[in-house]
Amino acid sequence: MRFKKSTRSAANSDCVEVAHTLSHLRDSKNPNGPSLAADAAALIRFAKIC
Description:
Oligomer: single chain
Structural class: alpha+beta
Number of strands: 4
Number of helices: 1
Shape: globular
Strand content: 25-35%
Strand order of the largest sheet: 1-2-3-4
Order of helices and strands: EEEEH
Largest sheet: 4 strands, antiparallel
């Protein structure tokens, strides 16, 4: 699964990455760690309030 780092990512890499399918989130500091699976529509709603 491919992930993309936010363009608003801090220089120290403290950010969340989103899968290209909009179905998973992960911590950019731990790319081999677990990811959070969610419905794409829910992730879009979450992004709009942050």
